[in-house]
Each structure stands twice: as structure tokens, then as C-alpha cells.
Amino acid sequence: MLNGKHIIVGITGGIAAYKMAYCVRELRRTGAEVRVVMTPSAAQFVTPLTFATLSGNEVVVHTFPPDTASGTDRRTAHIELGLWGDAMLIAPASANTIAKIAHGIADNFLTTLTLALRCPLILAPAMDADMWTNDATRENLARLKERGCFVIEPKEGPLASGLTGPGRLPEVEEILAELDAILSGLKSDLKGVKVLVTAGPTEEPVDPVRFIGNRSSGRMGFAIALAASRRGADVTLVSGPCELETPRNVERVDIVTAGEMREAVLMRLDAHDVLVMAAAVADFTPAKPTESKIKKSSEGGLTLELKPTADILREVASLKKGQVIVGFALETDDDAANARKKLSDKKLDFIVLNNPLTEGAGFGTTTNVVTFLYPDGRTKALPKMPKYDVAWRLLDRVAAIRGGRS
Q1: Domain 6-185 classification at class level
Q2: Fewer CB in a 10 Å sphere around the end CB: N or C, the chain?
């Protein structure tokens, strides 16, 4: 998969930077075209001239390079390079650079480039063991994985500090094998397919300041939207209230209530080929929300009359015109039986079952533990994995259904 590919190699400050000279050389031997970007700190470990010689292209270190081999306008070099690459590999990826990318800080050419990048970003972290296991580093990497970045895990062994532990950059052969596997796994099988995804909770108003809601973070639906976009789909994301960043190249529609979500989905259904209902839509809403705040009374409690919200999935099924429709079932009791009933009643192409009481599958987590249930009685249980990986597996199934495969 590397032959003929445009690979951007980003190098940050760390003793493992020397290994990247061998990596660039081997990438060229595979037939890849390589452009190298270094942070100023990386240039303290290995000279840019080394990588310019090995890559056959000028190395960019500074935000405003004096010149480029291709003649690109130096003011927009990060944009041009972001469009040129088929993949960007940052190795070694220091804790500092990982933190900057996770928080969108663009204070050198390399970090600025990652914001303009349109191709997959692969990180190969390398640092001392205590830095690798630090909560801040782990949280930053989790955030990047959630956005769809790939991470090549470091190895254990002797470190530059004299300690032994996790944090070593893998050997060149391992990095290239991982890079090849990632590029081989990338798919464009949804190119041109219009995918509608729902995500997050809904909030049903009790009065102007209170509502009935749930603990959904929206992460699963956002991961599906991101993964579908990465596979070439035109994606619309209908989201309840949540603070997640909108995935790149995804159109986002914000709603609050179940009624608003119903309206947004039905309005767009006919224009889409796939619908994935990952939102945790409220089952009930207050029958008579008040226009002013309900005052607390010391004389007694408060009784709320609730009425059921519209069953969006059931309504969608009755309007289906060849779309692939996927539902989610969040169950705590008799989960498989309840999910299969929902699958049958709502005539879904398949349903994704998860139990919030299972470790790694609760609200707010970056992982999920799910089982796919199919109309023919088959099931496919997945182990605990990042929600982005679950989304990728879900879309594998969607692509298979659209392709007529069982």
C-alpha cells in the first residue's frame, strides 16, 4: 500500500528522532514519496539536511520557510502540504506535541499542518515511561483517538533516562508494517453515499430551567459520523445537546427535544441512503410544561404527568424507501430479547445492543461493548474497543448490506 503514496513524516524533539532517518530511507525504498516536517526541537537531534538528502525533498522546519523545493507559496505551505499527503506519520511524537495537537495549538509548522490535514494522522509516541503513563498524556491520546487519529503504541525497554518501561519508539520495520496496515484498512466504500446519523440525548422541558434528560454524551454517534466521513460519505449529524466538536466535513444540525429530532430526521430521510439512529431519545416528555419556573414548596412534592414521545424509528420504518436503517438498543434487563423485539417491530436492517452496566460500555466512556443483531437470527459480539472502532465495524456491515453481501 505504500508504493506511490504521498507520506508526510513529522518528527518532534526526542532522542528517537535518529530512527526516522532509517524510516524515511525505507519509505523511499517501498516506492513512497516522502516530505519531512520537523519541529525546531527535532532539529537539535538530527539535522534537516539528513532528511532532505534521504527524502529527496526540502525539509520544512519553520512556520515561514524561506523557500520550498516545489515552489509553493511559503505563506500557504501548510495548506498545500495538507492537500498533498495520503497519510501523515508523526514519529517520534513527543508528549508536548501530542498535547498541542489534542488542543488545537498551532505554534509551529508541524502543529499548524495537523490542523489543515485532510489525510489520516498516525502518531507513534516516544517518551519516558512516567510521561507516557501520566494522566494528561493518556487523556490527550484518548481525545485524539476519538477524533479518528491512529496511534502506534510504544514498546517497553531501556529508555534514554536510564529507566526501563513503556515509551520506546518501535523499530522501523514495525512502524512501516503498522503504517501499511493502516493504509490497507482505509476504505472509500461509502464515497458519495448520503449518511444521516443521530447522536446525543434529548432534553424535554419541565419549565424554562428544568428538563428531563439522560446521560448520553453523544460520543458514539459522533464517532459514526466521523468514520462515515472518512470512508467518503456525505454525512449529516443530527445532535442533541452535547459539547463535542463537530467532525470535519460533517454537516451538523442541533436540536433539543425529541420532537425536534423527529422533525429533523423526517425532513432529511428521503435525501439519504443510510440512517443510523445512535441518539438516546427520551421516551417520555412532560405533558404540560410550564412557561414560568415551578417554585419549590415545603408542603409537599411535585407530580409530573408524562406522555410518550414519538417513536421515530417506527415512523421511519413505515417511510423507508430502500435506505439502510440501523438502530441502537440500550438495555439493562433481558437485553438480547428486548433488542431483538425492537429489531423486528421496527423492521431495521440490524440493531446495535449495549448494556450500560457492562464495564467500558456506560455513558460518557470513550469505549463501548456491543453486539450486532441481524434479522436472520445471527449475532456478532464485539469486545470492548474505542467507540471509533465500533463505528468502523458498524459501517463495515452497512457497506456489506448496500453491496448485497450477507
Answers
A1: alpha beta
A2: C
